TrEMBL record:
GO terms for molecular function: L-cysteine desulfhydrase activity. Residues 91-429 form the Serine dehydratase-like alpha subunit domain. Keywords: Lyase. The keyword Lyase applies. It comes from Anthropogastromicrobium aceti. GO terms for biological process: L-cysteine catabolic process to pyruvate. InterPro entries: Ser_deHydtase-like_asu, UPF0597. Belongs to the UPF0597 family. It comes from the Bacteria. HAMAP family: UPF0597 (MF_01845). PANTHER family: UPF0597 PROTEIN YHAM (PTHR30501:SF2). This is UPF0597 protein LKD48_15940.
Length: 436
């Protein structure tokens, strides 16, 4: 049984995770880092050097940066942050770029030398931006989380550095330790606890987060269906298979991703640091709620299930991996649909195990239009996992990576995503960067 402290922790996790973002979070993190570097420099840079981890390169290489007039890639993201970014806005750093500033971004890219290098050490999520102008220089580093600045220097003078023994580093370490203590303990999450929380939570503590998620993410999904974005996976699904609820759930989630990957200038509410995962955990559940005329309260409680299950899984995998995040999000959406339609802990647990067993082999090869198709497949697996249980069918322990007990199966998936696929990740990055 959940305690009052558990309820408080679950609500805090949602408040930390369900934040708005404008554009794919990896290029936006790069824009954020570059915007901060320009601010530290105190003038417009005349040279920009970008060092990034393989996973950042992978996730920025092929995605359009919003508010740039259709440009994609690492220099475009950095230029947008330098010319028009507001670091105080965090993951909405380039949300308010004007048409005039878009032109300035293009001109800046044409006139200023940019160099991009792979970072040999550091975290899977790691960015270091060095900017120079005449005799001045500034360096800013973001690591582990999309907006966590761990190093700042100007003209060689270190202002923040978590690894040095200087006084400022000690202060930073102390502040980070305090922040870690304030950060909700995700180890308290469990499938049983999540289902109980969804049934009993005081919605007034999280309804603002969930309602914003419904508004933002369903809005971009509708735009994705109605307009021409990316590979138009959502439209293809609807044209091919019709508009039954299962097809619409897949199609609208895919369409939201296609729009977002192709530079649609609308915000989304993210989950586990990812807008695509935020769309995937929410849009299919919204579609089912509309189809079955569920109340607003029933929808919000179901969204507690999908959001927290996705966070529970991704906590063990990490924000960036060769394991496609759409898988955990799509499976979580299937669990939320099971809950929405009257299911309890048994339906949710079996839905999750069944769906994970189906789609756990999908790889992440960066942010780009094919993410939409992977989302459609993952949502389909989530729904199939639920339908299997409804028909008295399931995958059993010792069937491949499935173990007896949902938490044991989750641990297996986390082990694969966080450790087992490191070699796969390296090969994917080599292929994408043409390194033999």
């Amino acid at each position: 049984m959940l305690t009052r402290e558990d309820h408080k922790t679950y609500a805090q996790i949602l408040r930390e995770e369900l934040t708005p973002a404008f554009g794919c979070t990896e290029p936006i993190a790069l824009a954020y880092c570059a915007a901060k570097a320009r601010e530290v420099l105190g003038q417009m840079p005349t040279e920009v050097i970008i060092e990034a981890s393989g996973n950042i390169i992978k996730n920025v290489k092929s995605v359009i940066v919003p508010n740039t007039g259709g440009m994609k890639g690492i220099p475009a993201a950095a230029a947008a942050g330098i010319v028009a970014g507001d670091s105080k806005a965090c993951l909405e750093v380039i949300a308010k770029v004007t048409p005039e500033e878009q032109k300035e971004i293009a001109e800046y890219l044409n006139n200023v030398p940019f160099s991009v290098k792979a970072m040999e050490d550091g975290d899977k999520l790691d960015i270091r931006v060095t900017v120079k102008a005449k005799e001045n220089s500034a360096v800013v580093r973001v690591s582990k989380h999309h907006t966590d600045i761990v190093y700042i220097a100007r003209n060689g003078e270190v202002m923040l550095n978590e690894q040095d023994d200087c006084e400022c580093a000690q202060k930073l370490a102390e502040s980070q330790a305090a922040a870690a203590e304030q950060r909700a303990d995700r180890s308290r999450l469990s499938i049983e606890g999540i289902v109980e929380y969804a049934k009993t939570a005081d919605l007034s503590t999280v309804s603002d987060l969930l309602n914003r998620q419904v508004e933002y993410n369903y809005n971009i999904a509708q735009v994705g269906v109605k307009e021409d974005w990316g590979a138009n996976v959502g439209s293809v699904l609807l044209d091919t298979y019709g508009e039954d609820v299962r097809t619409k759930a897949r199609a609208y989630a895919a369409a939201g991703s296609d729009a977002r990957m192709s530079g649609c200038e609308l915000p989304v509410v993210i989950n586990s640091g990812s807008g695509n995962q935020g769309i995937t955990v929410s849009v299919p559940v919204i579609i089912y709620a509309k189809e079955y005329h569920k109340s607003d309260e029933e929808l919000l409680r179901a969204l507690l299930v999908s959001n927290l299950i996705a966070i529970h899984i991704k906590t063990g995998i990490g924000p960036l991996s060769a394991f496609c995040g759409a898988v955990s999000a799509g499976c979580a959406a299937g669990c939320a649909i099971a809950f929405l339609l009257g299911g309890g802990i048994d339906e949710v647990a079996h839905t999750l195990v069944n769906s994970i067993a189906i789609t756990s082999g999908i790889i992440c090869d960066g942010a780009k239009p094919s993410c939409a198709a992977k989302i459609a497949s993952s949502v389909d697996a989530g729904i199939l996992g639920y339908e299997m249980y409804r028909h008295g069918q399931q995958f059993y322990g010792e069937d491949g990576i499935v173990s007896k007990g949902v938490e044991n199966t989750i641990r297996n998936i986390c082990r694969i995503g966080a450790e087992g696929m490191n070699g796969t990740d390296e090969e994917i990055i080599k292929i994408m960067t043409h390194c033999d």
